[in-house]
Amino acid sequence: LRLAMRRPNPGVKILDALPAQTFEIILGWTEKTNRSVPASIRRRLSADFKRATPRILYTTRTTRDLTTLVPRIEIPTLVMWGAKDLTLAPASFPRLVETLPQAIGYTFHQCGHIPHLTQASNFNRRVIDFAAGVSKSGSGKPTLLPPDGRAL
């Protein structure tokens, strides 16, 4: 995948031509997924990739940088990432959490790029806990509620 990403035009053609089964095999070689990601999830990811355009791999290279707008996001935000992510830079997520005015961050230490699939129970529990902690303040703006229930 990294080889295909280095050369966008030929890379897109190669990835587009790959059968889903071949892509599934490639997923098994990357990030040691053959040990951490069950075959059923690799099949689902392969099917998802084939439904999407291969150009999705180049989104970060072709989208303008919106970093300066992040501090203006005033709604409660849950940011979760895998410490072993080889697709995105795990070190960037704590900075994102610090920049968002109302953010909570969580690292899945034994996880790569897809914690919502490989650690679904833990991921879902954190989403539910986060949602339960969000309420509307008297101003109508959503705010985070800490475990004791008082608004921040």
Task: Write a compact overview of the structure shown.
Helix content is 47%, strand content 12%. The protein is α+β, with helices and mostly antiparallel strands.
Protein described:
Helices cover 47% and strands 12% of the residues. The protein is an alpha+beta fold. Strands 1-2 form a two-stranded parallel sheet.
Features:
152 residues; 12% strand; 4 strands; Rossmann fold; two-stranded parallel ribbon; 2 domains
- In whole angstroms, how far apart are the ends? 43 Å
Measured as a percent range, the helix fraction is 40-55%
Largest sheet: 2 strands, parallel
Q: How much β-strand is present in the residues?
A: 5-15%
Please tell me the overall pLDDT: 77
Our count of helices gives 9
Q: So what's the overall shape?
A: globular
- Rounded to an integer in angstroms, the radius of gyration calculated over CA atoms is 18 Å
Kindly identify the CATH topology of the largest domain.
Rossmann fold
CATH superfamily of the largest domain: Alpha/Beta hydrolase fold, catalytic domain
CATH class of the largest domain: Alpha Beta
CATH hierarchy: architecture of the largest domain: 3-Layer(aba) Sandwich
User: How many domains, in number, for the residues?
Assistant: 2
Sketch the topology as an H/E string, one letter per element.
HHHHHHEHEHHEE
